[in-house]
Amino acid sequence: ASPKRIERMLKVVVALCLASASAFSFGSSKTAAPVGVDEMEIGVQAPAGFYDPLGFVAKDGPEAFIRRRAVERKHGRIAMMAITGVLVHNADIEFPGYLSISEDLKFSDVPNGLKGIFTVPAAGLAQILAFAALVELAWWPASNYSGDYGCGFFGTQYEGEEKITKLNAEMANGRLAMLGIAGAMFAEGQTGMTLAEQLDS
Description:
With 201 residues, the protein is an all-alpha fold. It has helices at residues 3-21, 56-60, 62-90, 122-139, 160-191, 195-200, and strands spanning 98-100, 105-106. The chain is built from six helices and two strands, in the order αααββααα.
């Protein structure tokens, strides 16, 4: 990666970090929410407060709301991983070695952006889907609406107000990441250029 590209990517990362600090925000389960955590309070942040313009909570009840909140949390987590992957890959930071020895395909041969998924061999895509199924069905099951899988934040467990603060930050960052990855995908689809190519142009 050229120093100019790395510098631009760092600026993007810093901008995203600063934006996430002031991210705007909108707005029981098969497995109950964590003790001391009211799902109706998580993600309720200024300036919108509790944002439910279509009245889903009043119409469908709290059980449906908690399920939707669990889905939002999961999508936010996936989007945070996705946008991180976009930034890292567009900075030309790749694993060393081969993605597929039999096809003589190195990790560095995989193009940035949406084109990259079409370069991964079918066996690699099958492994990705199998791992996702393992996580979804057994390891961190979707039936656990609380989103608390007992591993904490890099092993650190939080309680009380500090836990609420961390959960709110996760929700805000997840919402911002969903917008970020959607924007990156739409921009690439519209322009045909990856994030790095747009920064270089």
